[in-house]
Amino acid sequence: MDSIFVVGTDTIAGANLATHWTDGGRSVNGFKRDVSDPDFGPTALDEARAQLAATKPEVVVYCGAASESAWSWPAIDAAAEGDLRVWARAVRDFGCRFTYVSSDAVFTGPWLFHAEDSTHHCQSLEAGRLRSMEELAQRIVADALIVRTNTFGWSSNGEGWIESLIASLEDEMLDADPVRHATPILASDLASILTRAHEEALSGFLHVAGAERVSHAAFVRMLADQFGLTAPAAQLSGVLATSATGFGRGETSLRTGRAKNVLNLAMPSLADGLARLHTQNIDGFRNRLGSHACELHRVA
């Protein structure tokens, strides 16, 4: 897929996907969404259709609220569902392929890893909405690729959850959580795997994640080590004898057998992902996020 339209270039996933693909020589157009804009709603369908007609992408990659890591506590609300509906309908009418980036937070424990067909769903309102949005994407675009993941990376505005974690580590003010577990992946690593998935024209559900299951606390310690900062002391008081409840508060680690088998590749290690995150801070990648990495089209 050489022509890609990324919806949500102001999300961490969207900004990093667009920049990675642009750096790789692909033609990338994007939409910087703003869910707080009261003028953007279902009436934007005609304009969304016009954007796709003008740019003629081979694939639209939708990165909305669900693409944000559950560890960053994203707002999964009715506005997010309405925005997805607009773009899914525009994609269906235009006739290109559609990739919807969803979240591992549809799941919770007690299982350590969740396959694509796992039924151990989190019962929170937010997780229920995530499942509804996945169903919406599939209902409108029957051959949609729905990617569940948990991404981390630099943000386009410098105010993302990784930046906040690093600032808290620098101030020694961070309270890391030993209960939440996931399989986080660097957003640009996700882009590399999605490239292969698009080449294979995959559809249906696909889990893309890091190779290791880690707690939020362990992730923070590894992040601190990578950036030469003082890690918070290990906490034991938060470990529960029963399953944690609440959105993104429990076990959301993903089993990635389908991706590994169909795409014939291994998932990246967290250590390698954090090392690449550090490199992106000094090699110019971070500065390209949200700038010339993609042409932004505003849909009003």
Name of the CATH first level: Alpha Beta
Using only C-alpha atoms, the radius of gyration works out to 18 Å
Q: Helix- and strand-based class?
A: alpha/beta
Report the sheet-strand fraction: 5-15%
Instruction: Characterize the overall form.
Output: globular
Query: DSSP helix count?
Result: 10
Span between termini? 27 Å
Q: How many structural domains can be distinguished in the coordinates?
A: 1
Mean pLDDT: 89
Number of strands: 11
Order of helices and strands: EHEHEHEHEEHEEHEEHHHHE
Describe the sheet with the most strands.
7 strands, parallel
Percent of residues in helical segments?
A: 25-40%
Regions with pLDDT < 50 over 5+ consecutive residues?
Answer: 292-300
CATH fold-level name? Rossmann fold
Query: Per CATH, which architecture?
Result: 3-Layer(aba) Sandwich
What is the fourth-level CATH superfamily?
NAD(P)-binding Rossmann-like Domain
Can you list the strand order of the major beta sheet? 9-5-4-3-1-2-11
